[in-house]
Amino acid sequence: MSSILIKNANIVNEGSIFQGDVLVENDIIAEISNSISAKSSDTKIIDADGQYLLPGMIDDQVHFREPGLTHKADIESESKAAVAGGITTFIEMPNTIPQATTIELLEDKFTIAKETSWANYSFMFGGTNDNLDEILKVDPTKVAGLKLFLGSSTGNMLVDDPETIENIFSKTKLLISTHCEDEATIKKNLEEHIKEYGDNIPLEKHPVIRSEEACYLSSSKAIELAKKTGARLHVFHLSTAKETKLFSNKKPLSEKKITAEVCIHHLWFSDEDYKTKGTKIKWNPAVKTKNDREGLLKALKDDRIDVIATDHAPHTWDEKNNVYTKAPSGGPLVQHAMVALMEMYHKGLISLEKIVEKTAHNPAILFQIKDRGYIRRGYKADLVLMDLQSPWTVNKENILYKCGWSPFEGAVFKSRVTHTIVNGTLAYENLKFPNRSHGERITFDR
Hints:
Blueprint: E1 3-13, E2 16-25, E3 28-33, E4 44-47, E5 52-55, E6 57-62, H1 75-84, E7 87-92, H2 103-116, E8 120-126, H3 132-135, E9 145-149, H4 162-171, E10 176-179, H5 183-197, H6 206-209, H7 212-229, E11 233-235, H8 241-244, E12 258-263, H9 264-268, H10 274-277, H11 290-301, E13 307-309, H12 317-320, H13 337-346, H14 352-366, E14 383-387, E15 392-393, E16 412-413, E17 416-422, E18 425-429
Parallel strand pairs: 1-4, 1-5, 6-7, 7-8, 8-9, 9-10, 10-11, 11-12, 12-13
Antiparallel strand pairs: 1-2, 2-3, 5-14, 14-17, 15-16, 17-18
């Protein structure tokens, strides 16, 4: 039996911070106590020396680009970067090539992850205008949920037929996650800007084109439909303060039927950063104003927004380094998500307890993930040690993404991940990967 004993940690879990030890045996948290002694000479002892022990982040929205787009990223490369960043579980999106819009194609992705993923995993099934029959075959106990692109998608994954959308909302038992931007509004705005600027539209116009109006219109329609049909709706990557008014904090998360997520980049950047960051911060939905950023943080802290995620979506730099109309949206984030949140903690913007709630506890509750997301006896040992006083600078040499760049290049973070344990395996330790972790397909209590 393998065992790891973490001693003298500040344990952040379930709304409190307390000093103690944690014993891991095989893949399970075996004991949590003020003081634990090693039971075997083979036990690996990690003296946390006052560092902070957190449950690993569960990132409910990533694009790891496999299959079909592996020149940008793949499950192995990005899950390894995620583990270095303190993410131990991810849920990946269906817009790969081919798209995961049939049971067979979805299971192909699970097969790849079983062989190559460093972190635990599940995948979203993709909805289209014409695959309702296939959606209804999906077993809700085995798959994270259904992803609907109600705006901004590739291939045929834009679901824009009102009758189809209502049929899906009415009939599926899956949790529905949506990308909400109104395509007609965006198309009109884009055409007007192309008339004025041609292809070389200033990046500062991105949040004007993919506007507050486009986001609010689509989000409000999805919520109205969810209320009408009783569907379980989770709205991905809110980007405007106005949208936060559509969500409630009057019920505990476990009782909510309509929930929301915010991503790191919408909490960190604002439209003032386009001048220096350019296409590196071109995302859909767009990074918007400081007021939007502040409104999102306020809604996160008062529990109208339930989850923090990354929407990690890498492209090569050659692809991104282009004029507005040709530069794809999306960027890599999994390696730097947790340290960015710790920087927000250092600035007094959010507490450690709230960070853990939104990155680990709440994704586990929302998706009904079995035995993960908490530091609890009997739960899977997915754990992260953070040193909150170990400054470092993001640069090309320490970026682990396959695409080789980051929107955080040049940023100095006060905190760093020192250790990541995945299913009881010490996968990451002080800038090295001492053991090859093997992620597991997460299971659901549904």
